[in-house]
Specification:
- The chain has 493 residues and is α/β, with parallel strands linked by helices.
- The chain has eleven helices and 27 strands.
- The strands form eight sheets. Strands 5-2-1-9-22-21 form a six-stranded mixed sheet, covered by helices on one side.
- Strand 1, helix 1 and strand 2 form a beta-alpha-beta unit.
- Helix 5 packs antiparallel against helix 6 and helix 7 packs parallel to helix 8.
- The longest helix has 20 residues.
- The radius of gyration is 22 Å and the shape is globular.
- The termini are far apart.
- The relative contact order is 0.21.
């Protein structure tokens, strides 16, 4: 009798945990295939440190082939699922097409950037959900400071030194905190004319920073940001994005060349093509993570609407701790469906959150104990080292070097603005000239500007979601870096 074929689509936190757990449980008695666009698992919580030049990019990328035994890796993007034929169609990085047959299917495709109908956003925005975007933003920040140093026009200089982040959730808060430290260090080494200093704005329509977390964490983050010089503007968002800057909802026009989108996400559009019932774009599953009427199909992570058994009538939010834990539950239940062990419903318990604010500063509440300052910073970094499935020594070494040596402030010029568009279903892949087109994302829904986005904070008991929801409830979208750097003179290649 042939071995059962298990196909896992997506290697974010949910998919990676599913594959790792199944590989240990199967002991070579099942054919496990993992379909993913990249050959690594991205530890997304440390991505702001990549953009700030604190960590090298590969530190946050854990090799799938090197860390998943008994799992076959197939590079490609799923672009169609035939539930009746039990097949998954995909396109590989070079444009070739293939099909994977399965006996059990786990959909862990995660989420994509959430767009709202704000003029200029799609044209002038970039998200912050993958390594290409982090590398682009790092180069962009360095480039703007360097170009500002040669500007004769004071207004142009100030515009290049103005950085706007919209979305004061987990990612936006960390990007603003780390970004401010990077640009300040650049200006200290190479002072600008007329004593111009970098200006950072963090915008959100919510009443406070990190609105879905404990108020004490929110107050700590707000205090650190303001002390560092970040202008925290709650109740404010973007009305329009232009080539020269952004028009805010309070009527102010901010001249800027850098606008970063760290707002919200929606489930990957792939699940819409399954024809199964959806809940706000998420694939409806039962407490055992199975799709009703399709016992061979499981779903977990951001793309799955999983019933919250502790809050009847509600679904678990699109957060990291749920994605990571659901991955393990999915693996256990897939194995049970094949006669190994017993199935169990998904239940959870929040273990707290950690937010890295750069330097020795952080906000954390592990097991409900609120912490701030250097103690929280130590807990936060210790948590990340413990939670990472690989590269721990390399990450710790980078942190140590950053503590004793100045950061390298050079542009690599590897990623250009058109390579990382905001409106894409594949933020983990940078577009290349002549390369195959990635899956097109359906047009953004006509959503009122007040529509809340989901929050994604880094839990103190689980890693932050890699398919990751990047926003905060009540946030409005922020246009990303304006595409001024398509000009060769600005150092892009």
């Amino acid at each position: 009798m042939s071995r059962p074929r298990i196909v896992i689509v997506g290697a974010g936190f949910a998919g990676y945990r599913t594959a790792r757990t199944l590989s240990r449980m199967s002991r070579g008695k099942a054919d496990i295939t993992l379909l993913n666009p990249t050959d690594y698992f991205l530890y997304l919580p440390l991505l702001p440190q990549v953009a700030a030049g604190l960590l090298e990019p590969r530190r946050t990328a854990v090799s799938l082939a090197g860390s998943l035994r008994h799992v076959r890796l197939v590079l490609g993007e799923a672009d169609g699922i035939d539930l009746d034929a039990r097949t998954v169609h995909y396109t590989d990085p070079e444009g070739g097409e293939g099909t994977l047959a399965y006996d059990r299917l786990v959909l862990a495709v995660g989420s994509v950037n959430k767009l709202l109908p704000i003029p200029g956003v799609a044209e002038h925005a970039h998200g912050f959900r993958g390594l290409p975007e982090a590398l682009y933003l790092r180069d962009h920040m360095i480039r703007q400071i360097e170009l500002a140093g040669s500007e004769d026009d004071p207004e142009a200089c100030e515009a290049r030194c103005t950085f706007v982040v919209v979305g004061a959730g987990y990612t936006g808060t960390e990007v603003a905190a780390h970004g401010r430290m990077l640009t300040d260090s650049l200006v200290r080494r190479h002072p600008l004319r007329r004593d111009i200093r970098p200006r950072w704005l963090l915008l959100d329509v919510a009443p406070r920073v990190l609105p879905e977390l404990d108020e004490r964490l929110s107050a700590t983050a707000d205090r650190v940001l303001r002390r560092r010089g970040v202008e925290v503007r709650m109740g404010t968002s973007v009305k329009e994005a232009t080539h020269e800057g952004v028009l805010l909802t309070d009527g102010e026009f901010v001249r800027s060349r850098t606008l970063v989108w760290c707002v919200g996400v929606r489930p990957d559009p792939l699940v819409e093509g399954t024809g199964q019932p959806l809940e706000k774009g998420r694939l409806v599953v039962d407490p055992f993570l199975q799709v009703p009427g399709r016992p061979e199909v499981f779903a977990c992570g951001d793309a799955a609407a999983v019933p919250d058994l502790d809050n009847p009538g509600r679904y678990t939010p699109m957060t990291a701790q749920h994605a990571w834990r659901q991955g393990r539950t999915a693996a256990v239940n897939v194995a049970a469906s094949l006669g190994v062990g017993e199935a169990r419903p998904y239940r959870h318990r929040d273990l707290g959150f950690v937010v890295d604010l750069g330097g020795a500063q952080a906000a954390a509440d592990p097991l409900g104990v609120p912490l701030s300052g250097p103690v929280a910073g130590a807990v936060t970094r210790g948590y990340h080292l413990a939670a990472m499935p690989g590269n721990r020594a390399r990450v710790a070494a980078d942190w140590l070097l950053d503590a004793v040596l100045p950061r390298q402030s050079v542009q690599l010029g590897l990623v250009r603005s058109w390579s990382v568009p905001l409106d894409t279903a594949s933020p983990e892949l940078a577009r290349v000239p002549g390369g195959p087109e990635h899956r097109a994302r359906p047009p953004a829904a006509s959503t009122p500007a007040s529509t809340p986005a989901s929050a994604r904070s880094s839990p103190a008991g689980e890693p932050a979601s890699g398919a990751p929801g990047d926003g905060t409830t009540g946030s409005h979208p922020a246009p990303g870096p304006v595409k001024r750097d398509d000009i060769p003179a600005e150092g892009d290649s």
